[in-house]
């Protein structure tokens, strides 16, 4: 049993160590719940549930017998209704709990396998001149954007990415969003960057890939269907026409925080920029890669 160290408060209430621990645990759970539903469609639903609870409590205080009876009858079933309404959030919470209990070494291995598949797919798309937009979720949730696309919740693999972005595939338009080692959704709509410093030659795919990184901490991998150039966007910055080797190093640094591997820089293939060799570089481009002109739509 927790040692009961009683403290006499001004109001005459007795506050114990167990009570403090109890309050802290409840506050922590409420905080985690609010973080879980923040920025999702569960927020307005949660507001509606709160409004109904306030109405029913007012009915109890004012002795409205019929409404009070209705609440008492429906209360046992409301628990199941809440489970159905918030099933996505509950599933996400259990998934996060499971991931947090795994060993960090195993998680790091999974992440390494993940960006290996991404780099392999980007390299293939670059060679085949296939447009692609891959968004990788990090700390800030992307469920608002996931809900705009087609839910998949599939294991990430090179074959799956290659199938989705095949030009004749029905889901090749839009972005795919990755959550951990799961491909959450495809054909997702993303916010376009309105930054005036971006080159006017950047197309919708690139502006969408940059826009999502301006609003969240996500990482975007973009492949141009016109030039085949590979770009990496993070925090509103974009590195264009990078090699698959450089992409792998950058993803390793961004996704595996414990990695001590230095960020080496590879020269970008000049042939990808012949069409846009006017030298109009975006001021947001990585300063570590000078000399890379132009951009792919």
Keywords for this structure?
alpha+beta; elongated; 9 helices; disordered C terminus; 297 residues; two-stranded antiparallel ribbon; 13% strand; YojJ-like (1; 2 domains; seven-stranded mixed sheet
What's the quick description here?
A hairpin with a 2-residue loop joins strand 8 (230-234) and strand 9 (237-239). It is built from nine helices and nine strands. The longest helix is centred in the middle third of the chain and has 25 residues, at 104-128.
Can you characterise this structure?
The structure is a single chain. The protein has 2 domains: 7-97, no CATH class; 103-276, DNA integrity scanning protein, DisA, N-terminal domain (YojJ-like (1). The chain is α+β, with helices and mostly antiparallel strands. It contains 9 helices and 9 strands. Helix 2 packs antiparallel against helix 3 and helix 5 (104-128) packs antiparallel against helix 9 (244-255). 46% of the residues lie in helices and 13% in strands.
- Which fold does the CATH topology of the largest domain refer to? YojJ-like (1
Structural class: alpha+beta
Number of helices: 9
Overall radius of gyration:
25 Å
H and E order: EEHHHHHEHEHEEHEEEH
Number of domains: 2
CATH class of the largest domain: Alpha Beta
Mean pLDDT: 75
As laid out across the biggest beta sheet, the strand order is: 4-6-5-3-7-8-9
Uncertain runs: 1-10, 103-109, 258-297
Number of strands: 9
């Amino acid at each position: 049993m927790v040692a009961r160290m009683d403290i006499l408060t001004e109001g005459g209430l007795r506050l114990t160590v167990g009570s403090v621990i109890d309050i802290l645990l409840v506050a922590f759970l409420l905080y985690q719940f609010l973080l879980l539903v923040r920025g999702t469609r569960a927020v307005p639903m949660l507001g509606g549930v709160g409004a109904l609870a306030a109405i029913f409590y007012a009915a109890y205080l004012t002795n409205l017998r019929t409404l009070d009876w209705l609440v008492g009858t429906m209360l046992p079933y409301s628990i199941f209704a809440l489970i159905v309404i918030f099933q996505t959030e509950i599933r996400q919470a259990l998934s996060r709990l499971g991931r947090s209990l795994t060993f960090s070494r195993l998680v790091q291995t999974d992440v390494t396998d993940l960006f290996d598949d991404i780099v392999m797919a980007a390299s293939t798309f670059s060679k085949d001149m296939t447009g692609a937009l891959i968004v990788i979720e990090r700390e800030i949730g992307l469920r608002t954007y996931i809900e705009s696309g087609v839910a998949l919740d599939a294991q990430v693999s090179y074959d799956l990415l290659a199938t989705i972005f095949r030009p004749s595939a029905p889901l090749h338009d839009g972005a795919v969003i990755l959550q951990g080692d799961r491909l959450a959704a495809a054909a997702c709509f993303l916010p376009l960057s309105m930054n005036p410093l971006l080159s006017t030659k950047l197309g919708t795919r690139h502006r969408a890939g940059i826009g999502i990184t301006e609003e969240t901490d996500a990482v975007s991998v973009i492949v141009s269907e016109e030039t085949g150039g590979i770009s990496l966007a993070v925090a509103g910055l974009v590195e264009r026409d990078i090699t698959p080797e450089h992409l792998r190093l950058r993803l390793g640094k961004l996704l595996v925080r414990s990695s001590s591997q230095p960020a080496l820089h590879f020269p970008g293939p000049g042939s990808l920029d012949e069409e846009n060799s006017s030298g109009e570089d975006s001021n947001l481009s990585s300063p570590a890669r000078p000399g890379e002109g132009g951009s792919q739509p």
